[in-house]
Design a protein that fits this description.
Chain A: Keywords: Membrane, Transmembrane, Transmembrane helix. Chain A: This is Ferric reductase like transmembrane component. Chain A: It comes from Alterirhizorhabdus solaris. The structure holds two protein chains of two kinds. The longest helix of chain A has about 55 residues. Chain A contains eleven helices and no strands. By secondary structure, chain A is an all-alpha fold. Helices cover about 25% and strands about 15% of the residues of chain B. Chain B is built from 19 helices and 20 strands. A seven-stranded mixed β-sheet of chain B has the order 2-1-12-11-10-7-8, with no helix packed on it. A five-stranded mixed β-sheet of chain B has the order 4-3-5-6-9, with no helix packed on it. In chain B, a hairpin with a 2-residue loop joins strand 7 and strand 8. In chain B, helix 14 runs antiparallel to helix 16. The longest helix of chain B is centred in the first third of the chain and has 28 residues. The N and C termini of chain B lie far apart (about 140 Å). About 0% of the residues of chain B have low confidence. Classes of the chains: A mainly alpha, B alpha+beta. Chains A and B meet through helix 6, helix 7, helix 8, helix 9 and helix 11 of A and helix 1, helix 2 and helix 5 of B.
């Protein structure tokens, strides 16, 4: 029994191999070989007067690059079906990452280092942006979950929101005896959407128009000159706002880390389709004004 | 006259709890104050917000107290009449008060319920979505479709539209207006400088969509260019491509790209530079073993200047009279006959009479201590070759044709016109013989009484026989060995019968020996003349003073040679051969590689003494 237990444990540890290390870096090796081969052929291919995408090797690289891009895009379809084995999703993802990186070499050599303000360079730039966003995505996946978990502590998202709601309720109750003007101050905090602020605020974690902070500033302006005698309901409000702000800060950091974790896909996916459209225009233009 | 107020609240699991309360009073106060009849624990509600007063069995009136409005059936107001029979909804802050009538109790029923959450955060939300960045950005799918639409519209539809509007123009073949045209975004790179003006006129070359550029587009402007050779012979001479080449040709034909187009060599869209020079391999592919395929050709095989190029074969005049010009290899040591007698060694000597004479003329003609090459050989304006040598410009200052002086004016013999020379000499000696008397009538029949005429005839015959002039010997001397003409020229003597006069074999100095190639003297100003031309040791005008290919190869090698000057075929030969310099030479001149002619020449002259 014990032996079987150890065996099971071993299996479990071996299954924890990520897509980057998949199958002993098989796809990294393949991608490196392909890139190196492409560079060597490029170096020995004597295209006159200067290398360009219209040479025989240029067309070859272009065709390979185009097919590779279409295949890489298919990960979006493939990922919806998780399977195991040789052609497992993990294997696909591993190939996607490393062959996608090899595309930097293939695509750049296809340009023959000739760039300009045209549809051809547009396709190249879009391709590079997609690849760079992918590289960012991998680094984000490697680094951010730890930060996310550190920030969260033991609380879950739901708990974070529940805490906030609880403070809001307390604020609401504590503010009941207040006159209208003071009640309006508290409402600045209550009516502020913790998920608002837009994408930029999410990514930077900066909320310059934060309702809670404004509410607290207003309350403190009110209570500041008065001595703290302990029976002013505004003082309790102040304490509650303080607590809310601390909670908000943690939640906003959480939102920021999550946004940084997710944002690359909002570049990677839409730009991939922009790239495919640009590639279509690129190939169309080449055959339309056929050299 | 009563109100029933039903306060609805909900338990945590959403169950409704209704607390009804009856008021037997005509007026109810509404507010956040706990003392109000209808207490709304809502911060958006003032402490005393409004009062509601019954005005009839099923009618009531609501009036704001603190001057803050409320909504009645969605309309913001500070006073409203309510018909409980018809019903109404009053919204104050996050609370809704539904007005209705309970006929049995004969009371107006006010159902109070909180509809809004305590705070924004307390509202029921899709938590996963709220925490995800997706809630703050447009969807990936929306963005993807928008980008596809944008890219296709700007980079596909717009250029296509620009192409078709150009096709529909009044004169589709004419030049396109200078402006931005969207199909320029399809250009793969700047055109060469020569074609810069076609930059925005794609159709100038890309005439039909999907059809590769044809030579007809080039010929439309370049109408004076001729073929490299007869197209049939050119086709026969073309090299057999290797496996890779065949595959390329197969691809090309599959994509409707014909073989051997102008653009195969003259590639475009390679940047705004001079059009690239044709590579050596474009020549050597066919010319390396041309004779194997084109067996009757006079052209010798060549593939590389440094390693595989035949000896120079200049066009040499081997006979001045009758004129014969032949292309002969320098290896065969051909002897030129240009009609002139000219020993270079005598003229370039630094110690003989020529040098002494040059010294006496230093001031007047700018000679040095002896003659130098440049004293006679003056570059033409291009610097490529030299101005023709003429008697008047280059010889006459020493080789004078003067024969008389009258009151300070020197009379010279007319160069280039032997008959005039003879006439002038005769005139000089005034020795044209006795004038025939007028009464000597030739072959008239003799009649009695002609004695006087007979006597005249006898005297004339005697005079003719005895009084010959001194001109004839002088003329003979001029044209014979030791004479001024004979010194430099080949003389054609009069026939034995004594008729006719002296003649001169015409002199023909070639301005160019190698008409199949290009040699630019200006480009070689770093060299001295004698480093190539062995003039100082040449004793005969028959010596062909051209350097052999071995001499050139000390500096020049093939395109890839490790020599001082890498020289592809295009440096001396042009594919479309004409009288102008090859493209490569013209290119290098444009780039300012050429040195200043005059200054360099002066330097050479100084060097030569």
């Amino acid at each position: 029994m014990a032996a079987r237990g150890v065996q099971q444990l071993k299996q479990v540890t071996s299954q924890h191999e990520g897509f980057l290390r998949h199958a002993g870096f098989r796809w990294l090796k393949i991608a490196l070989t392909v890139s190196l081969l492409a560079i060597v052929i490029y170096a020995f291919d004597d295209v006159r007067p200067r290398p360009n995408g219209g040479s025989a090797y240029g067309y070859f690289l272009g065709t390979v690059g185009l097919l590779l891009i279409l295949w890489l895009t298919m990960l979006g379809v493939r990922k919806r079906a998780m399977t195991r084995g040789r052609w497992s999703l993990k294997s696909w993802t591993s190939a996607h990452v490393y062959l996608g990186l090899a595309l930097i070499v293939i695509g750049t050599l296809h340009t023959g280092f000739q760039f300009g303000w045209n549809v051809h360079t547009l396709a190249y730039v879009l391709m590079m942006l997609v690849i760079l966003s992918g590289i960012y995505g991998i680094t984000a996946y490697a680094a951010l979950p730890r930060a996310l978990s550190n920030n969260r502590g033991e609380t879950t998202q739901t708990q974070m929101l529940d805490n906030l709601r609880m403070i809001d309720r307390q604020l609401h109750d504590a503010a009941q005896p207040l006159d209208h003007r003071h009640a309006e101050m508290v409402r600045m905090s209550l009516d502020d959407d913790p998920f608002g602020g837009g994408a930029w605020a999410r990514l930077t974690g900066r909320y310059p128009r934060c309702g809670t902070r404004r509410a607290q500033a207003a309350v403190r302006a009110e209570t500041g000159p008065n001595p703290a005698i302990g029976d002013d309901p505004l003082e309790k409000i102040d304490v509650l706002l303080e607590r809310k702000e601390a909670n908000l800060a943690r939640m906003r950091q959480h939102l920021r880390l999550k946004a940084l974790l997710e944002v690359w896909l909002y570049v990677h996916v839409p730009l991939t389709f922009a790239l495919i459209a640009a590639l279509f225009a690129h190939v169309f233009a080449v055959f339309f004004y056929w050299g | 006259m009563s109100f029933i107020v039903r306060q609805i609240s909900r338990t945590a699991d959403g169950r409704e709890i209704i607390r009804p309360r009856t008021f037997d009073q005509p007026e109810l106060s509404i507010g956040r104050n706990t003392g109000c009849d209808i207490h709304l624990p809502d911060l958006a509600v003032t402490l005393n917000h409004a009062t509601i007063r019954q005005t009839g069995p099923s009618r009531a009136e609501i009036v704001a107290v603190a001057g803050l409005p409320f909504d009645v059936d969605g309309r913001s107001t500070e006073r409203a009449d309510l018909d409980a029979q018809r019903g109404a909804n009053i919204r104050i802050g996050a609370h809704v008060i539904a007005v209705s009538r309970d006929a049995e109790a004969d009371a107006i029923v006010l159902t109070v319920e909180r509809v809004g959450a305590v705070s924004d955060a307390s509202e029921v939300i899709d938590e996963d979505r709220a925490f995800s960045l997706g809630s703050a950005l447009p969807g990936k799918r929306v963005m993807a479709w928008s980008f596809i639409g944008l890219v296709l519209a700007v980079f596909l539809a717009w250029p296509l539209w620009s192409f078709y509007t150009n096709s529909q123009a009044a004169d589709p073949t004419g030049p396109r207006p200078i402006a931005f045209h969207a199909d320029e975004m399809w250009s793969t790179g700047k055109l060469s400088q020569a074609h810069a003006q076609l930059e925005n006129d794609c159709k100038a070359c890309h005439v039909q969509p999907g059809v590769a550029v044809r030579d007809s587009s080039c010929v439309a402007c370049h109408d004076t260019l001729h073929d490299h050779a007869d197209p049939a012979r050119l086709a026969a001479a073309r090299f057999e491509p290797g496996a890779g080449g065949k595959a390329q040709l197969a691809f090309k034909s599959a994509f409707n790209v014909p073989e051997g187009r102008c653009v195969d060599c003259h590639t475009e869209h390679e940047g705004a530079t001079a059009m690239p020079v044709t590579e050596q391999k474009f020549c050597s592919d066919c010319h390396a073993d041309l004779k194997a395929r084109l067996t009757d050709t006079a052209i010798l095989n060549a593939s590389d200047f440094g390693t595989d190029h035949p000896q120079f074969r200049p066009a040499v005049r081997t006979s001045a009279m009758p004129p014969v010009v032949q292309r002969l290899s320098l290896d065969a040591r051909p002897i030129e006959d240009n009609g002139l007698k000219f020993p270079h060694n005598v003229h370039l000597s630094t110690t003989n009479g020529v040098a002494r004479m040059a010294q006496t003329m230093q001031v007047e003609f700018g000679f040095g201590k002896s003659l130098a090459c440049a004293d006679c050989h003056v570059p033409d304006p291009s610097g490529t070759r030299f101005r023709p040598i003429t008697m008047e410009q280059n010889c006459q200052m020493c080789h004078s044709l003067a024969f008389d002086k009258i009151e300070g004016t020197v009379r010279t013999l007319r160069h280039g016109d032997p008959k005039q020379v003879v006439a002038d000499l005769r005139a000089f000696y005034r020795s044209t013989g006795p004038v025939q008397p007028i009464n000597l009538g030739g072959n008239a029949r003799r009649r009695p009484g002609d004695f006087a005429a007979q006597a005249t005839s006898a005297r004339f015959s005697f005079a003719s026989a005895t009084r010959y002039g001194r001109a004839d010997p002088a003329i003979r001397a001029t044209f014979s060995e030791g004479g001024v003409c004979f010194e430099c020229h080949k003389v054609v003597a009069p026939s034995q019968s004594g008729t006719g006069t002296f003649g001169i074999v015409p002199v023909k100095l070639p301005d160019r020996y190698m008409r199949k190639g290009w040699f630019d003297h200006a480009a070689h100003q770093t060299e001295t003349c004698v480093s190539c031309h062995a003039a100082p040791t040449s004793a005969s005008a028959g010596d062909l003073l051209l350097p052999k290919i071995e001499s050139c190869r000390t500096c020049h090698g093939g395109e890839t040679a490790h020599k001082e000057v890498k020289s592809s075929c295009a440096m001396c030969h042009d594919f479309h051969r004409d009288d102008a310099a090859p493209l490569m030479v013209r290119d290098s001149r444009e780039r300012g590689k050429r040195v200043d002619n005059g200054r360099a020449l002066k330097a050479i002259r100084r060097q030569d003494g």
